Amino acid sequence: MHYPARILFQSLVKSFYRENAGALFFFFTILFFIVGDFHGAGIIEYHYSLITGMLENTYFLLFVCFVWLLYARKCAAHVTGILYRPEYAFLHILNYLNKAKRYSLFFFTAVLLLIPVLLYACLIIIVGWKRQFYTSAIGVGLYLVLLCAAMAARHVHQLNNLENITVRPVKKAGWLTRLLATYPVVLLRFVAHKQRFVWLGIKLFTCGILYAISRNNTLTTYDFSTVFWFFNFGIIANGILVYRIREFETSYLTFYRSLAVSLPKRLLEYALVYFALLLPEFITLGKLVPVHLHYNDAAGFALSSFSLLLLLHSITFLHRFSMNAYLRIVLLIAVIQFIFLIFSSLILLSLLFLLLAILLFMFRYYKSHCH
């Protein structure tokens, strides 16, 4: 690796992976290490089925490409932020290189930043070529080359025009300002800005495994329990987002508690937040009925996921739990689900969780503010 490339690697690539090591580890743990042998479906079979589902379903593949685009945007924002920092002003010396050289350096940087995506895309291309999905395989390859090329062109332009950057005030319409100030949107904006990578990883796992396993269901071989437990594990992982939202509320939104808002309205606002966060799962369930999932089972999945997140949120008002204590509670709830479902229905359990969530919220919301 020659000297300019080594500079960019240390300044841009290494710093990115250092800052996002936790999120990357969480994502790969869920996607590659959690999926074990279950009913004969191991990690290789899971990913092969998942990739086949991407290649067979254009909308699923487009969703994956959109997720890759968001990841590329995150990488590009990291590089842009570093280029504008005074302590990295030494990078401007790269402008003395010719434009082709600068472009090749930033293309190399983009490839290194997108390595997690590129490695998985290679698997998609190999499976696509083997299964004769030639158009999809070639499209995935061209799309990722285009992403790297666009990132490189953007950063070459930024490096060459740093002195011309001006910050213009953003004008927002009155209705938009009011919408962005509503409590549910404030919480969703927090997830979008600070937890988007975690959210995307959970959605990709949950929706991917739901689609991959459910598509094997037919009228003659229908397995409800296997699909539910894999799906429910992804929903339980959403508990991390619940905990982060409550941390954000406790640290920065205490002034909202003094506003004249009724308890039912505040509960409805939280319900809207978790409904929005679960929209990808709801859309996936809608795509699977009635061929691969019965209507009543899909409704049970949706109600179960919604009631579980609302219950986890209400539980946080009992006490300010540490992350370890909170995760133990989540695990206990998962055990209760398993035991209860042996003897009763998913719909009934979901309704009980929903009732318990409402009661806990009503009795503990204001009392928790006194501590």
From TrEMBL:
Keyword line: Membrane, Transmembrane, Transmembrane helix
Superkingdom assignment: Bacteria
Regions crossing the membrane: 21-39, 59-84, 105-127, 133-153, 197-214, 226-246, 267-286, 298-318, 325-343
Repeat keyword on record: no
The protein, known as: ABC-2 type transport system permease protein
Source organism per UniProt: Chitinophaga defluvii
